[in-house]
Structure formats: structure tokens, C-alpha cells
């Protein structure tokens, strides 16, 4: 399939690999699209998987609703579930980078029965990030989020002179220039950057970062040179995963799907192997039960 619909919105999706194979869902971050996983998908397909890589809400031209309330976490999680429904996939191995990682954390905690495993790239657990804001450099590293709350001005600044500021920021953070150029072009589409910034602007509307404890097999891959996440956020992630957990630090920056695709594929396959081992003889999986969650982590918007 090349698209799916939900609530009158049409989402573009790249569907690669045999339809009957186990499903992997790849969720991109800001300010990208499904193209960010282009170097990862062939390795996953070669390993025997069907890979679904959607252009998420705000990034697909047919799925750019107005207003920041349309981008609360509840909607982003529901979009992934709608993708699985449209693809006829009961469960999926979920892979998320950057904001896609935040959606992955939330989906795995809110839709445990539909998550076979979770591989998160360059994104600490959201609750760990919140806790680290007052205990580490995380607040400084996330200062740009406050700037994005201002109406219309970030769009004007980032897209001035053909998107020079956005292009420069992406390249300086380690994204190869030819790939940054693609992302800048996409953000210049009508309403695209405003929609993408809607994810950030929706944060004050509710407890948008509320992802609960995760019980599925999880692999977290981080770059030691990633300027967006403090070590305290990464370290604080481990207690929030009740299922099997592995952290794989790399000598890399933030843009792991593009710059370290082989390592990403290996991480996904490691999560899959753990999930398969937990299922044993191939019988239908029983969703794990987490202990009672801290009220601060309840998955509510």
C-alpha cells in the first residue's frame, strides 16, 4: 500500500517487503519524513521483514490539520494503530527516531498488545527527559523547544533565504548536506513547517510526554555526540523499561538512521530475537503486565 487514512486525513507510507512477513514500523522524527530510513529498510527486508515507513501527521501533505491540538500524543499514537489496521498487521516491531522515538515509547506503553518489540534511536524515554530537566544539562539542550512555542516567527526565521537557517542547523548537528537539502525542501511545502512544529506546540496542551513503563523487549541506541540528549536522560531510561532492555551507545551523533544504518538494523534484529525468544514456541503472545505505574507516568493526555 502507498497510503492509509484516518479521520479524513491521508498519510503517505512506504511499504516494502512481502505482505505476509513480520512487520516493522519505522517512525521518523523532526523535520524529516520516511526517507530518513532509506538506508535501513533494505537490511530489514533482506532479513525477512515487511517494513512500513509512514510520513507522519503534519509531514504527509494530506495529513496536515490546522491547530496544535491536532498533534497531541493521543493522535500520534492512534495514527500508528490505524497504519497497522490498514496493513492488516496485528502487531509490529516498532522503530522510532527522534520524535518518532517518543511516539514509539508511548505506543509501546499504551498499545502493548500490538507492540512486538521496540527499538528507539536517539531518544531517551520522555519521562526520563522530564526528570533530567532540573538535574542535568537537558534543559539547556532542549531550550529550542521553548523558542518553537512562539507563533509564526520560527517558520519565518528557519525558512528565510530558502531555508538557510534550517539547513545550517541540520548540517551542523551532523546530518549530511544532501540529506538536509531534502528535508529543507519538504519543509518549504505549504504549511509543512507549521504542521511539523505543531508537535512541539502541542506539548503545553496536556501531558503530552506521558509515556508509561514499557514491558516489551527494548533496545535504545544513542550517539555519544548527540547534542540533544543529556546522559542523565539516557541513564534515567533504564528504570522505565520493565521488559528486556539493552542500551547501545555509539560513537556517533543524532542522525543514526542515515549515518549508522547497519547499527540500526543490528539493533532492530536484536530486539526481534529477544521478542522471539520470549514467545517461545511461536504460540500467540500474551501481553506482559507491568507493575502499577507511578501516577506521574500514566498514559493520559
Task: Chart the SSEs and their pairings.
Blueprint: E1 3-6, E2 9-16, E3 23-27, H1 41-46, E4 50-54, H2 73-87, E5 92-97, H3 99-110, E6 115-121, H4 126-132, H5 138-141, H6 143-147, H7 153-172, H8 177-187, H9 192-201, E7 218-223, H10 231-235, E8 245-250, H11 256-259, H12 261-279
Parallel strand pairs: 3-4, 3-5, 5-6, 6-7, 7-8
Antiparallel strand pairs: 1-2, 2-4
Helix pairs in contact: 2-3, 7-8
Describe the protein in words.
The chain is of the alpha/beta class and 301 residues long. The chain has a single domain, classed as 3-Layer(aba) Sandwich (Rossmann fold). It contains 12 helices and 8 strands. The chain has helices at 41-46, 73-87, 99-110, 126-132, 138-141, 143-147, 153-172, 177-187, 192-201, 231-235, 256-259, 261-279, and strands at 3-6, 9-16, 23-27, 50-54, 92-97, 115-121, 218-223, 245-250. Strands 1-2-4-3-5-6-7-8 form an 8-stranded mixed sheet, sandwiched between helices. Helix 2 packs across helix 3 (99-110) and helix 7 runs antiparallel to helix 8 (177-187). The longest helix is centred in the middle third of the chain and has 20 residues, at 153-172. It is globular. 47% of the residues are buried. Residues 292-301 have low confidence and may be disordered.
